[in-house]
Amino acid sequence: MKVNNKRALSLMLGLAMGLGATSSAYSQASLEDVMKARGLTQKDLLAAAKTYTPTGGRDEYLVFASGGQSGQVIVYGIPSMRILKYIGVFTPEPWQGYGFDDESKAVLAQGRINGKDITWGDTHHPAFSETEGEYNGRFLFINDKANPRLAVIDLHDFETKQIVVNPFFKSEHGGAFVTPNTEYVMEASQYAAPFSSDFVPLEEFNDKYRGGLTYWKFDDKKGRLQPDQSFTFELPPYSQDLSDAGKNASYGWGFTNSFCSERYVGGIEKGRPPFEAGCSQKDTDFLHITNWKKAAELVAAGKVEKVNGSYMIPMAQAIKEELLYLVPEPKSPHGVDVNPDGTHIIVSGKLDSHAWVYSWEKIQKAIAAKKFEAKDPYGIPIIALKDALHTQVAVGLGPLHTQYDSKKCTVYTSIYVDSMVTKWDYCEGKVLDQLHIHYNIGHLMAMEGDSVSPDGKYLVSLNKLAIDRFNPVGPLHPQNHQLIDISGDKMQLLYDMPLPLGEPHYAVAIKADKLKPAVRYKSGWNSRTDERSPYRTRAGREKVVKEDGVTHVYGTVIRSHITPEIIEVEEGDTVSIHLTNLERAEDEVHGFALYGQSVNLSIEPGKTASYTFTAEKAGVYPYYCTEFCSALHLEMQGYLLVTPKGYQAKESGMVEGEQYTQADYEKQVKTNVETQAVIDSVVAFITSHNYKDFPPVVALVEDATEQLGFADEAKKKAEGFAAKGDFQNATLWAGQWWQYQVKTADMGLRAKTYLEQHGAVKVETK
Ligand code: RUQ
Ligand code: CUA
Questions:
Q1: What DSSP designation does 661 have?
Q2: Ligand 2 atom with least separation from CA of 626
């Protein structure tokens, strides 16, 4: 790749600016000077040129990273490593109104456990929806390890739509992993527990504690998981861990590994050796192989019983129906990763220095021939290692996860203890390259690495420790994601990105052009149910009505106005405020905050968001828009007046702070006439160009036209009062007329700029 010198130079200048007074680099003109001043090498410059994205530039890939204990998903771009969004999933996120508006509270409420609100999550593994094994860019799934739940995020608007709670598990880790057509999303338990919610003493661990693997049915059209069609395999209490779905050759099967198949239960308090000793005695644990396709057929045929309202396949049935097998795997394994054509499965043992490559062909042969070396204590057939293994490769100390390259047979394995990435060939069984990372890598992720056709190009190492990589910010350090160029024979470290939300366990990257996010909702939209909101309101139809004891405020927001401006309720009333954003223009979001209430709404164009509360105490409660949406954003305000019970308003009218004369009125009108001239010239420019070919401009023009309509109404009112000699009201309405003009002009100018910058051409005007 040729380095663009101009770009690199401006990058260096930009970086140097950050150094301020301590460096003279800012004023230096040549690249060489800057390099010298900042102590940069040629290699640094090359890395910079490979990642730097100039203003307005876009990334080739978008990464969706787990936000770990933040219960969120973090979205960032590759190669720039710029963070684009946090998506609230299991945790309230005030900027997005998530967990604050009624609509999203309903989503979080789906995730209650035993009736309790759980307002955080330990997210581990995001996964994209797939079609024939390719990421289709429509949905993202992510799990919560602490409280076994799965969430569905719709990539049309990057919002969480659904949370489901596992009906059997008390903890999980092996999710989310999708089958090649998103038929199912896998979720495997982690710490064994009774399937019921009763107390069962630890003495009954072997008999009553269970692991499991749920296949959640996904309805692609509805975009929701279907709990009533999902099923769970009952599994031994082996601490099932990560999973992966078979693909191509192994389509229809799933793979789940486990640790602590010793079934050791700690109890150091009772003088017993601790968990970690008891859980690492055996040289091998078990890889579980499940036939989900056949299991789904049994469910469809009505051959599987429901327990607690959910399909559950007991071990005895799974064994009898030939749905479940075990294969020994390296000691205390972690990742299990199926290769793109589904012919091989790679498992790494945290306490082994080898990655083990299994052959699906061999496994299938053993299954077909019913060739098993033994049965486990629960009667599950065990396939002998020699009948399943393709090869073992010494990759380093503490191997965890493996990602596949676009090049055949090439893989990358994260080596936790040695803090490095090992590139190796799993067909030939040889190591190709190794790269040190900083520090203690967990997962690693290649572009579209879980699909049937990985793109290679870049690898991200998701490190457990940052230690000395960034400016210290206290004992809690940022996380460190390192970007690695894998396009050549040798891996090259390009960039360190501190992530201030952790711990991001896993991430997935998709080609950015596969995503088609919306810029606005259909008007009056409940984004969480993806239906029109019953509380949607159109301009001019705002109202306050009492229905079933609830005061419903049907309001609207538009630059720079909340309607209604004054809401009056009585002490003790239940109030439900519904606000619809009337804007169509891209990025014109309004917020809503109210004194004394824990609320912030994010009302994107078209959205209707609601907030319901009890007005417990009489008083004055200002509210306002929380997004700096327009020049008069600060004036986007109002009052909720909670009157005491039985309050009677006084007769006397309102006395305004200022008195206006005919001269004031005429001065305002003069300004308005001048403003109109500006608007006319902008309109002339827009309509003389092919603006209809630019959807963002069309949206702006629609909004501007609406504002101009409001301006006209205000103008008529002003003129009416002026005719009656009421210059107080005439001046105020003339001021409002001007406000609408200003908003029109603002949108018009934005549209004009857009056209100029995007090569609009002149058209014939009649
Ligand atoms: S984890 S570092 Cu996937 Cu939860 Cu492996
Ligand atoms: Cu709307 Cu500020």
A1: -
A2: 2
Task: Tell me, in angstroms, the distance from the centre of ligand 2 to residue 180's CA.
Answer: 44
Cα(559)–Cα(294) distance, rounded to whole angstroms? 57
Query: pLDDT digit string (tens) for 99-129?
Result: 999 999 999 999 999 999 999 999 999 999 9
Ligand nearest to the CA of 634: 2
What pLDDT does 22 receive? 46
Pocket test for ligand 1, best of 256, 350, 465, 506 (most atoms within 8 A of CB): 506
Report the DSSP beta bridge partners of residue 127.
141
pLDDT, tens digit, for every residue of 324-383?
999 999 888 899 999 999 999 999 988 889 999 999 999 999 999 999 999 999 999 999
Helices (H), 61-193: 102-109
Kindly report the backbone phi and psi dihedral angles of residue 301, in degrees, each rounded to the nearest multiple of 5, phi listed first.
-85, 5
Helix (H, G, I), strand (E, B) or coil at 373: coil
Atom of ligand 1 nearest to the CA of 414: 2
pLDDT at 14 over 60: no
At 384 the pLDDT is: 97
Q: What is the pLDDT at residue 18?
A: 40
Please identify which residue in the block is written with the tokens 């420790």. 465
Q: Which amino acids bring their CB within 6 angstroms of ligand 1?
A: 124-125, 173, 242, 334, 400-401, 442-443, 505-506
Shortest-distance Cα residue to atom 4 of ligand 1: 124
CA-derived radius of gyration, the chain: 31
Percent of the chain with pLDDT strictly greater than 70:
96
Largest CA distance in the chain: 102
Average pLDDT of the chain? 93
Asked if 244 and 222 touch (Cβ cutoff 8 Å), the reply is: no
In angstroms, the CA 162 to CA 35 distance is 50
Could you tell me which of 246, 227, 219 has the C-alpha nearest to residue 111?
227
pTM for the model stands at: 0.90
Which residues, judged by CB distance below 6 Å to any ligand atom, belong to the binding site of ligand 2? Answer: 560, 590, 625, 627-629, 633, 636
Q: Are the C-beta atoms of 307 and 316 separated by less than 8 Å?
A: no
Place of tokens 């009553």: 208
Q: Are 98 and 160 within 8 A, CB to CB?
A: yes
- How far, in Å, is the centroid of ligand 1 from the Cα of 173? 8
How sure is the predictor about 193, in pLDDT bands with cuts at 50, 70 and 90? Answer: very high
Measuring CA to CA, which residue among 243, 428, 257 is closest to residue 330? Answer: 257
- Distance linking the first and last C-alpha atoms of the chain: 50
Question: Is residue 618 predicted with pLDDT exceeding 80?
Answer: yes
- Token code pair at residue 177: 């992993």
Query: Which residue is closest in CA terms to ligand 2's atom 1?
Result: 590
